[in-house]
Amino acid sequence: MVPVMFLLLIQLIALLNGYGVEARIRQYKWEVKNEFKSPDCYRKMVITINGRTPGPTIRTQQNDTIIVEVTNSLFTENIAIHWHGIRQIGTPWFDGSEGITQCPILPGTTFKYQFVVDRPGTYVYHAHYGMQRDSGLYGSIIVGLPDGESEPFAYDYDRNIILNDWYHNSTTEQAVGLSKVPFQWIGEPQSLLIHGRGRFNCSSLSVPSSDPGLCNTTNPDCSPFRLIVVPGKTYRLRVSSLTSLSALSFQIEGHNLTVVEADGHYVEPFVVQNLFIYSGETYSVLVKADQDPTTNYWITSNIVSRPAPNTLPGQGVLVYYPNHPRRSPPTIPPAAPVWNDSRPRMAQSQAIKARRGYIHIPPAVSDRVIVFLNTQNEINGRRRWSVNNVSFTHPHTPYLIALKHNLTQAFDQNPPPDGYDFLNYDIYERHPNANTTSSNGIYRLNFNSTVDIILQNANTMNPKNSETHPWHLHGHDFWVLGYGEGKFDMFNDPNKYNLVNPIMKNTVPVHPFGWTALRFKADNPGAWSFHCHIESHFFMGMGVVFAEGIEKVGKLPSSIMGCGQTQGL
């Protein structure tokens, strides 16, 4: 159990830093269990929180303490919940990453997460055990400013929307296929969900079912998402993506979207018609209800960066009050962006800058540069994703505990490589990568050092193919210094870095056959995952772990132990 005095000390430090308002303690009790739901009209077993998916929205304020008591009522599965975007300063053991910061929560047991939300913004929570996020265990975290403070943009109402893709196969079925020889890919999703609601074409089932309830388009579970707006009012839409695989575009027919926040940081405002969003990202956009109020309008999501001809778009309705909520728009849904045109996606990435007056200047130089080559490989006939030809595997003992208690046998003590063969590796060719290995070794970072990460994309096992990878860093925000096409030039590209007004984020895409450059301070004691946020890719080894300042980590709570070599500690 985390000492209460420790959390009170964190709140006191926040007050002394000028926040000057009383922090609150907000408590939640959640029961996680299996239920049959039909979010896209097709019935399957999902994971719910208090009977809901998406789960309850946590609404709180900066410097509040969040206490969530999670009871695992699943019959046969462990769980862990990650608080995505919450840096867990002083509480790295409650990051919620199974195998990295905690042992899993066993069926029939209750676990208490307790942490302080130190920054306002839009965040999410989700399962971080196996591929359970794909089963519906996710939700939103909305952190407001302290009372009396205001944001640099005005709006009348605040709403949140989670975008997702949806598979009919269970995560266990998917995991078995990804692990088998020969390799069995999960395929494209059956549907796209807008805040937990989508529409599958029941007539497309290959084998008609005798069960009329298996796929029923009249099921209220899959009635379209509807957002009711008052004419003339401005809405802040907090849009998050927790897709299992897909990169998405999001649009509202006939309405501009003004981007003002990304991953909890204010953005120099810019206007889009399509918001490109990748798994793990969160944005706030301002939408004014300034169109013809006698009609309703489509809200849509579409897959980009992958061909998915059989996946129906996500569809919702923007309802102008007092129109009837069930009145469909008189038009056909707007056309989707061309799925394989990466230029507008790259342009949006490059357009995201920190807002004037809210710029955090990065250190001018870094102490260490690590280049991560993203490749697809085979190890002993099994398809894997790798970083610098090393495919990540989880240990049985969580890293944070192993490092704090010096359990040197718990994981490989040899660090993975900091780079690859820059001169000779052709990122446009399919490589056998015969020297690929698997490892659970980690990167040890000097505490308070400045680290540059270069994400380098390359060809997959398929000819002339490179995929979009959204990378998420736990425990930190990073500065996005730049994006580029082709192979990163270590001599010239750093001269193009944006050191004036780079946005800070916790999740960022690396585009096909491109690179993305990040910089962060290793100033948060703990063990932190950095991984592709696509469920199947991380499951197949696309991730690393950073350790920093372990000697500064406080006494670990006994509640996170009980697996691997932690038994008996």
UniProtKB/TrEMBL annotation:
InterPro entries named among the record's database cross-references: Cu-oxidase-like_N, Cu-oxidase_2nd, Cu-oxidase_C, Cu-oxidase_fam, Cu_oxidase_CS, Cu_oxidase_Cu_BS, Cupredoxin, CuRO_3_AAO
An example Gene Ontology molecular-function term: copper ion binding
Catalytic activity, EC: 1.10.3.3
Any one Pfam family match given in the protein's UniProt record, by short name: Cu-oxidase
Residues in Plastocyanin-like domain copies: 33-143, 161-321, 433-549
Domain of life: Eukaryota
Keywords: Copper, Disulfide bond, Glycoprotein, Metal-binding, Oxidoreductase, Repeat, Secreted, Signal
Cofactor: Cu cation
Residues annotated as signal peptide: 1-23
Subcellular localization, as worded in the UniProt entry: Secreted
Catalytic activity: 4 L-ascorbate + O2 = 4 monodehydro-L-ascorbate radical + 2 H2O
A GO cellular-component term linked to this record: extracellular region
Main location: secreted
Enzyme category, top tier: oxidoreductase
Assembly information from the UniProt record: Dimer.
Similarity annotation: Belongs to the multicopper oxidase family.
Designated name of the protein: L-ascorbate oxidase
